[in-house]
Amino acid sequence: MSTTWADDNRRYTAAAFRRVRGFLVDEFGSRDDEIDRELDELEERMSSAPALTTLEAAFGLSPFERDVLLLCAGVELDEGVRIALAEGDERRSVPAPTFALALAKLPHAHWSALTPAAPLRRWDLVEVAAGRRLTEAPLHVGERVLHYLAGIHYLDDAIGMRAPTADVALSDSRIEMARAAAEPLADASPAAQPVVQLVVQHLALGEAVAAELAASVGLAAGVLPASDLPIIPADLRDVARSVEREAVLAAVLPVVLVDESDADVAARLADEITGPVVIVTRTPVTLRRSDLRVVVPASNSEERLQTWATALGSAADDLPDEVQRAADLLDLDPLAIRAAASEFAAVSGDDDAAAAANRFWTLARDRARPRLGRLAERISRNATWDDLVLPDEQKQTLRDIAEQARWRGLVHREWGLGRDTGEGMGISALFAGPSGTGKTMAASVIATELGLDLYRVDLSQVVSKYIGETEKHLAEIFRGTEGAGCVLLFDEADALFGRRSEVRDSHDRYANLEVSYLLQRMEAYEGLAILTTNMRSALDPAFLRRLRFVVAFTLPDEPSRAEIWRKVYPEMVPREDLDPQLLAQLAIPGGNIRTIALNAAFHAAARGGDVTMADILRATRAEFVKLERALPEAQVRGWT
């Protein structure tokens, strides 16, 4: 009759308990040899080692330490051990075993077995009750170890470890990558286990690769989010020991998921652990241990398109252009794609085709929206082409930029243009001109036309006097927005270009390097990146050649100012006898016109009347005071 591993493990553990019971009641001799033969026979026929044998080998237990562990576990699992302990007690109750009892009854006894550095206490296999002398303190086996000896396997959620949850189908190339990364773990000696760092764009994808890596060495993945780890060193050391113990008990490979803010605590945990560890991170973590870094490429547009099609089902057939666009522009991981598809299906109603397409795109874009903190702000301004007052030539160039951003996927991917240049599919542009001439509004118009978010980066806040810090901030911005479906607007680029001059010393040379680094990242960026500057002359012609578009914004002439004044107020704003032609006599940029118009509207609202020329004149005087400029009275004559 065939038996299972669980059945044989129970028999093996029961025989081991009988052996310990014999020591307690002083039964030695032939019976002891008989039990040893039974243990050998059971171990020989079992498909894998008994739980006790695995514990003994993995934690380096001496024969005495193994028997102490059995003594403690026997109180919970074996009636014979309980009876033997009770017979030695005057009250005939079952006392907890003590170290004094173990030293007196078990063979090969040694005092060092119960030191904090010895395996029993180092790995929390046995717990020593507080408040008594060490030899008389009750000894207990932990619940997790007790269940393991009984053949019950599970992940201990007390330390926050879980099974992988990322249901991500891996491509053949990523499976091969995972198996290749597993080879150093399989080949390394126990004393020189490396840390494998999987550098990924999306943690869910990295988790799936880590699970495949673990399977390649015959283990499951035990996932531990670094955000759940304690920051106090002593507590972190306790967690590290528990993680290593769990790696043995549950046959798992520890996998630590790291967000940027958790990198330090994850590194300290990996350095505390002596066994193999996998770190899944967006940016490499600095360790004291040797490590193997594997960069896992993000899903490409074809893979994302297939995931969208599977997640949406038949709905994908009704949204072919939008689904293709989402696959091209939004670097979402499979979990986010499935979540967006579920949300789209859950609120699907009687939308017409255009409304459904817009709702789908909004859901997908919102899932990809980046978190950039203080480095960038999202500008919510739904400006249109009608709001933009520019000469026809400049306006056409802006339309060309939007056109290229919309169709870059077709031209680069399907038509194959630009594949061999080594550059990204993105577009870089420079908007140059005085303040208030419409550079930010033009970027907003393009973003609205494309249905993308616009993020404004104030370069004056990003540039640092410390060498390397500017590049670090820029890298964080590009990394955070890559594949997020947004337009990047680098405003106040004068803060960077203004530092560039003829190279006279190392600081000048480094300023040039910062400009070059920014342009390099813009070229590689798979999106639309726009620079604005008031100092086009500060740019080296060699830098200008690296930008695909350069748009000059000039101060509006009088007819353009009149058009801006005509468009500045929506239809619902009450007005009285406003004369755009008369207002256009004041030579100011469009940005100042909009500020004046807004402030004048507040004056009218507070007065309870319509916006009048007098309100505009009052707001104009305040604007010139703010600008510390004298108002040319001749240009405002006749306004009241």
UniProtKB/TrEMBL annotation:
Known InterPro entries for this protein? 26S_Proteasome_ATPase, AAA+_ATPase, ATPase_AAA_core, P-loop_NTPase, WHD
Q: Is this entry keyworded Nucleotide-binding?
A: yes
Domain named AAA+ ATPase: residues: 425-557
| Superkingdom per UniProt | Bacteria
Pfam families in the record: AAA, WHD
Keyword list (alphabetical) reads: ATP-binding, Nucleotide-binding
Residue ranges the record marks as coiled coil: none
GO molecular function list = ATP binding; ATP hydrolysis activity
Q: Which family does it belong to?
A: Belongs to the AAA ATPase family.
Name the UniProt record assigns to this protein: ATP-binding protein
Q: Which organism is it from?
A: Microbacterium oryzae
